[in-house]
Write a structure and sequence with these properties.
about 700 residues; alpha/beta; Beta-Lactamase; 4 domains; eight-stranded mixed beta barrel; five-stranded antiparallel sheet; 22 helices; binds magnesium ion
Length: about 700
């Protein structure tokens, strides 16, 4: 049955109950009506039976009276003895109910009627019953409303000489009948009333039974089922803690409730397990991106209400890819495991209440941090995170150096939504990378623009070489002792169609971060070799070309092959090619770098350490990394005349390098004074604006020809 409104089990039960009661009531009413009509029938039946009985009685009496009178009156009528006839008629008249007596002759003329002077004597009978009475063969009764007339003929020897008529009143018979019927009707009425009482009592009992059945059903079945439905709804919403169903009943409902409770527990357990699996990072045991997003959303919701503050720290390991590339992914996983422990400990030590740590991607961690004076304390946390990560890791007996860059964004100052906060933290982290890695940056609105610019720059840098926007300039490098031109350093230039010349300090970084440097580096290497091939003069030592190699190029591992093919394609001799590597490229994984450099050097290519002195490797590094030369960073050269410490350090580098048989080149010589000091100290070669600025390929070619 489909009902337009939702009744529920209780409603349906009530409805059925009412239906049953209505049917019962209708049946009972029909029964009652039937019983009423049959009692009426009974009354009528008994009334007519009684009436019949009374009629028969009256008729019997009338016949007896009439025939007795006829017998007695035979002789007196024959002899017309009026006195005797009068006596007889009056005797009959005295009988109860007798109204009249008529003795008549054969012609129907009145002979006597019991009166004294017989006024009707000799008159014919003229009443409506007279005819039948006169012609009746035997005793004959006739009925009218009020009367019974019984006629008897009087015969002598078969000849009819007259007859008698006796009239009896029906009144007393009717009255007797009435008197007998009344108590009967009363008894029948009483019986019917009694029946009605029983019926009503039955109805009431049925109604009471119905109500108690419904309430029993409600209590024993409907209520437990509604309870289960509510619990199921809670389970559906994931509110397992709110599901409280129990029963100690020993029936099917009790069984059902207990089974439901068990099922709910098992669903909750499964849900917990699935959540745990879905929300934790299997490698580090930290929360994963999903869990973190949920935690962050929840936290922001409460903070928005309480106007609290929080910091989001985006921690990205520097050069983590190198670990994977050189030591394998297992080692990489181990590093991540160890570092996540350190991050956890650092966060615990700085005591952020309710801090959350999550691993977001390969080498990205995110920390949600809440504290007093959020800006200062999150700065401290970032510092100690970087410190912790920079501490050397021991991996299978080998030391590994890693760094981290951290971006920080603050709620509610920078953004209010989780998505925006994460984006900000990412941007700030990126800025920390740009600023040289191993540091932290707070997000600022200005960064958005920087990021936008950067994204655009990256877009434009793609294919810039093919469009001919990139070219190489060369800065001459001289032997300081006799100021002889020995070679030149290839420096990349970007002639941007809209921005003009973009310095390498800007776009090399972009190329490095985006991976574009790998193809760019290959182009530079080939181009530099092609240019250098035109520099040689017959009978002279061929000049070298010095090419900058980015750390990323070193990491890909195919550098020796790229170099070999560039040399083979251009006919440049290996010793004519110098590769400039920065300290940071070599640092961290000396063993792998050393192996690569040794392979390169074995082919005759020279390897120089660029920007020497700016890294943290120190002089001892030189002993372990096989290089042919070092380029003293121009920051030392700039102060060599003013700062005695810089002069001392420069001198020490020169002496140390010489003791190892390494050539020393000074960068950024901008004055004659600097040039002189360096020459005095025994610096082998130098480059700088004072000696010669970077210049186009054609120009440097002229220099070599002269
Ligand atoms: P670098 O290898 O240290 O190159 C020397 C930089 O010092 C050049 O800047 C040069 O113009 C500048 N310089 C030379 N003499 C002086 C001087 O007397 N005073 C001052 N103040 N500066 C001087 P540039 O060309 O802007 O290049 C910057 C950096 O870009 C280079 O530093 C190098 O690390 C990188 N770079 C340039 N071209 C390439 C390339 O093709 N590949 C890679 N990987 N990096 C490159
Ligand atoms: Mg260089
Ligand atoms: Mg340099």
């Amino acid at each position: 049955m489909k009902l337009p409104v939702k009744l529920g089990l209780r409603g349906e039960l009530l409805l059925i109950m009412c239906g049953v009661l209505l049917v019962v009531a209708a049946l009972v009413a029909a029964l009652w009506l039937h019983e009423k009509s049959s009692s009426r029938d009974a009354r009528e039946l008994s009334a007519s039976a009684m009436r019949e009985l009374a009629r028969e009685g009256l008729l019997g009496r009338g016949q007896t009276l009439s025939s007795q009178l006829a017998d007695a009156a035979t002789n007196p009528l024959y002899y017309l003895d009026l006195a005797k006839l009068g006596e007889l008629a009056r005797a009959t008249l005295r009988q109860p109910d007798v109204v009249y007596v008529v003795i008549h002759d054969a012609e129907g003329q009145v002979v006597h009627d019991g009166s004294g002077d017989i006024p009707a004597f000799g008159q014919p009978m003229s009443d409506p019953m007279a005819y039948e009475a006169l012609n009746a063969e035997g005793v004959h009764g006739q009925w009218s409303d009020k009367l019974l007339d019984v006629a008897s003929p009087i015969r002598i020897g078969g000849e009819r000489i007259g007859g008698v008529r006796v009239g009896l009143s029906r009144e007393s018979a009717n009255r007797r009948e009435q008197e007998m019927l009344e108590p009967l009707a009363e008894r029948l009425q009483a019986a019917s009333n009694e029946h009605l009482g029983w019926i009503l009592a039955l109805m009431a009992a049925l109604a009471a039974m119905g109500i108690s059945a419904v309430s029993l059903l409600q209590r024993r079945i409907v209520a437990p089922i509604s309870g289960l439905a509510e619990a199921a709804a809670r389970i559906e919403q994931g509110r397992y803690a709110d599901v409280k169903v129990a029963s100690d009943r020993q029936d099917e409902i009790g069984e059902l409730v207990r089974a439901f409770a068990r099922m709910s527990e098992s669903v909750a357990r499964h849900d917990r397990d699935i959540r745990r699996m879905a929300y934790t990072d299997s490698l580090t045991g930290l929360s994963n991106r999903l869990a973190f997003r949920e935690a962050l959303d929840a936290r922001l919701l409460t903070l928005q209400a309480s106007s609290g503050e929080l910091a989001l720290l985006f921690v990205d390991l520097d050069d983590f890819k190198r670990v994977n590339d050189t030591l394998g992914h297992e080692a990489g996983d181990e590093v991540l495991g160890q570092l996540s422990m350190r991050i956890r400990m650092a966060v615990e030590r700085l005591g952020g209440v309710g801090a959350e740590i999550a691993r977001f991607g390969g080498d990205e961690f995110i920390v949600l941090f809440m504290a007093e004076d959020i800006r200062t304390s999150s700065g401290h946390l970032a510092e100690s995170l970087i410190e912790e990560i920079q501490r050397p890791l021991v991996l299978r007996g080998r030391q590994v150096f890693l760094g981290a860059s951290v971006g920080i964004t603050l709620f509610p100052f920078d953004a209010s939504s989780a998505g925006q906060l994460l984006k900000n933290a990412d941007i700030a982290m990126y800025q920390a990378k740009v600023a040289g890695k191993g540091c932290y940056r707070f997000y600022s609105k200005a960064m958005d623009q920087a990021v936008e610019r950067r994204v655009q720059l990256e877009e434009e840098l793609r294919g810039a070489w093919d469009r001919g926007e990139l070219s190489l300039h060369y800065q001459p490098i001289y032997r300081l002792a006799d100021k002889r031109l020995m070679g030149a350093e290839a420096l990349c230039r970007w002639q941007h169609p809209r921005l003009g010349v973009v310095p390498p300090s800007v776009f090399i970084e972009v190329a490095e971060q985006s991976g574009l440097i790998e193809s760019l580096g290959r182009h530079v290497l080939v181009q530099a070799c092609q240019d250098a091939a035109t520099w040689s003069q017959p009978g002279m030592e061929p000049p070298f070309v010095s090419v900058n190699i980015s750390p990323r190029q070193l990491r890909t591992g195919d550098l020796p092959d790229v170099v070999a093919s560039a040399l083979a394609a251009t006919g440049v001799m290996p010793r004519q090619l110098h590769l400039e590597l920065t300290e940071t490229a070599v640092l961290g994984d000396e063993v792998q770098a050393s192996a690569l450099l040794s392979r390169l050097r074995a082919t005759g290519v020279k390897v120089w350490l660029d920007d020497f002195g700016t890294g943290f490797s120190g002089l001892s590094h030189l002993r372990r990394v096989p290089v042919d030369g070092v380029k003293i960073d121009r920051s030392f050269v700039a102060d060599v005349l003013r700062d005695p410490d810089d002069l001392a350090l420069t001198s020490a580098i020169i002496a140390m390098a010489h003791s190892l048989g390494i050539t020393v080149v000074a960068e950024g010589i901008e004055s004659e004074g600097q040039n002189e000091v360096l020459r005095e100290r025994g610096c082998d070669q130098g480059q700088g604006f004072w000696l010669g600025r970077p210049m186009p390929a054609a120009e440097i070619q002229r220099h070599f020809r002269e």
